[in-house]
């Protein structure tokens, strides 16, 4: 009998293997406000499934968690470069409610003016870049010579030297690295589910570093930005669900490999569904990819230990079927606007 494991995040429904003894699919679910499909957003659910073994689900990550440091004695002045975009609008909405933050805005006519943007980047205590990759790189160049903390929401710097990866629960030392850094890259939404499930298992020695993983995933359409939102919310016809990324060269692959400690990139198979925000990320594993003798309980325990005491990440007990809608489905939108990440482990041993 072939044993398998699957990581799963929040999805419209759970991914089920053809045979319980054969496969299990990992999933991650989260609402995606984003700057293109793949940005981390409102809520995330991830799961790992081990067919004839274990299934873990990392459930519900809420909107993008920015890496801004705590408020000082005076209000921190924050500039959002790209504040009129899908991501920028949501960041502005959140920061505007923070009593220790003042948002520095440019007049609409100056938002693309290089000199005005440079001045704002140098004046601010911190800046959040809600821009495409090339524009984010140009913005960082404009900020050279300043003491401004930069939080970049694009994929441009997620594996770059000199940048702190903005996933504070990644390891025991990551939050400290973020708090001391002036260059912080915000994690992608798909990678958050995948890394959130696999990194603790690699660190615990349960998931072998040479494991060759497959990652099916589905996201809400807001992750595609204004263009995809207009398609899904407009009057024209559109697909109810669509797979994409058939070139097998998704921009998140390097990030998913580097921050898990795995030796090779996964095969990533993303899709978009007819719901605005939410995501399910699945990672099927065979038991042979785990340390010999590893049980489903060991996998769940490793996740629970890694995230013990974390404010925004929680791990459910083994086989928490009560979280499944109608006893079968994981909703992709259950954690919208909460900033939380929930992990689940389902087993069939």
From TrEMBL:
InterPro entries: AGPR, AGPR_dimerisation_dom, AGPR_type-2, NAD(P)-bd_dom_sf, Semialdehyde_DH_NAD-bd. Keywords: Amino-acid biosynthesis, Arginine biosynthesis, Cytoplasm, NADP, Oxidoreductase. GO terms for biological process: L-arginine biosynthetic process. Residues 77-178 form the Semialdehyde dehydrogenase NAD-binding domain. GO terms for cellular component: cytoplasm. One of its GO terms (molecular function) is NAD binding. This is Semialdehyde dehydrogenase NAD-binding domain-containing protein. It holds the Pfam family Semialdhyde_dh. The lineage of its organism: Eukaryota, Sar, Alveolata, Dinophyceae, Suessiales.
């Amino acid at each position: 009998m072939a044993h398998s494991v699957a990581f799963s995040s929040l999805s419209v429904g759970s991914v089920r293997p053809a045979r319980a003894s054969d496969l299990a699919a990992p999933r991650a679910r989260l609402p995606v406000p984003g700057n293109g499909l793949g940005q981390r957003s409102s809520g995330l659910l991830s799961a790992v499934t081990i067919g004839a073994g274990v299934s873990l689900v990392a459930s519900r990550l809420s909107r993008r968690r920015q890496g801004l440091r705590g408020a000082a004695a005076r209000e921190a002045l924050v500039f959002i470069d790209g504040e009129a975009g899908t991501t920028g609008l949501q960041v502005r909405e959140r920061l505007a409610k923070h009593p220790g933050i003042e948002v520095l805005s440019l007049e609409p006519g100056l938002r693309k003016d290089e000199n005005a943007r440079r001045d704002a980047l140098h004046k601010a205590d911190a800046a959040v870049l809600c821009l495409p990759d090339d524009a984010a790189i140009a913005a960082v160049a404009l900020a050279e010579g300043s003491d401004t903390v930069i939080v970049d929401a694009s994929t441009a710097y997620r594996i770059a030297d000199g940048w702190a990866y903005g996933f504070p629960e990644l390891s025991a030392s990551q939050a400290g690295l973020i708090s001391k850094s002036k260059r912080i890259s915000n994690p992608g939404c798909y990678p958050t589910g995948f890394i959130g499930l696999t990194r603790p298992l690699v660190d615990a020695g349960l998931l072998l570093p040479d494991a060759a993983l497959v990652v099916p995933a589905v996201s809400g359409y807001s992750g595609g930005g204004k263009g995809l939102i207009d398609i899904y919310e407009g009057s024209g016809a559109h697909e109810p669900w669509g797979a994409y990324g058939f070139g097998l060269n998704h921009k998140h692959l390097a990030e998913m490999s580097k921050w898990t400690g795995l030796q090779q990139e996964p095969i990533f198979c993303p899709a978009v569904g007819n719901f605005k925000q939410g995501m399910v990320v699945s990672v099927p594993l065979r038991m042979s990819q785990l340390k010999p003798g590893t049980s489903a309980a060991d996998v769940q325990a490793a996740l629970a230990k890694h995230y013990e005491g974390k404010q925004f990440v929680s791990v459910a007990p083994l086989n928490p079927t009560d979280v499944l809608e109608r006893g079968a489905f994981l909703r992709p939108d259950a954690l919208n606007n909460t900033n939380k990440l929930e992990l689940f482990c389902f087993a069939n041993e």
